[in-house]
Amino acid sequence: MIRTRELTKDYQVKSETVRAVDGLDLTVEEGELVALLGPNGAGKSTTLRMLTTLLRPTSGTATVAGHDVTTAQGEVRRRIGYIGQGNGAGHNQRGRDELVNQGRCYGLSRAAARTRAAELIDSLDLATVADRRVSSLSGGQRRRLDIAMGLIHAPALLFLDEPSTGLDPQNRANLQEHILGLRARYGTTVVLTTHYLDEADAMAERVIVIDHGRVIADDTPARLKADLAGDRVVLGFASVAAAHRASGLVDVPFEAAGASLVLRADDGPRLVPGLLHKLDLAGVEVRTVEVARPTLDDVFLALTGRSLREGVSTAEEVAA
Q: Strand, helix or coil at 235?
């Protein structure tokens, strides 16, 4: 569904050339739900804009839904849905009318557009608000309307750029449920960008991490967490001296933190019983034990040394 080779985008900032996307190689198969993640300024929004024909690449190639993004832009646009970070519907328009008009723009007959609009209104729980003005809808209702507009022409591929930004936790959870339900119903390929790592963890089959315009990790969330972060085990002792004694008996990577040792292990729950037994035989008393399974936040720190929201680069500011 998506294939890029050496995809590159440069921006000219005053007299300096800034590379936002640097030789990106990316493949997304039909039917996948992929989360495209990266710290601010990593190049993910620029990548999405090139894949949706909104930006022309500086060099490299990209095909989307079987068509080249530079030589067959119209064909690409007919086959994709794109929900950006802003609301797409006119504030003074009624939701149902916007859906029908969107369908007409994609070549549907008026009858077909109305039928498709009604189907999506029902699927996305918009029946009670579809005939109200968009300006009167809540944030969650507007985002669901945006998704309906992106799906009106039954695209093979749907791009969601930060779909739940600004929503409260309940609306975020509802939106995730709707996206997963629609994907199961229509078999749509979905590419998602998000700053909510729990969202990517819950929804995506694959997580592709981009930093400095390049792919630095590509795997399932479970394997990324297991391979790159590991479980976090914290052992608490009565004193710094006791923690120091224990450190000589620990044979996995750790950091000393006062009267505690912070360990990283592939399987923390399996490690802990044997380690406690070993320390007990050595006469070192463990006062507290905490075991935390890894998160995608841990993966980000391991991969990039920074959090997902850190730092906005000049290139991303230009792209915005």
A: strand
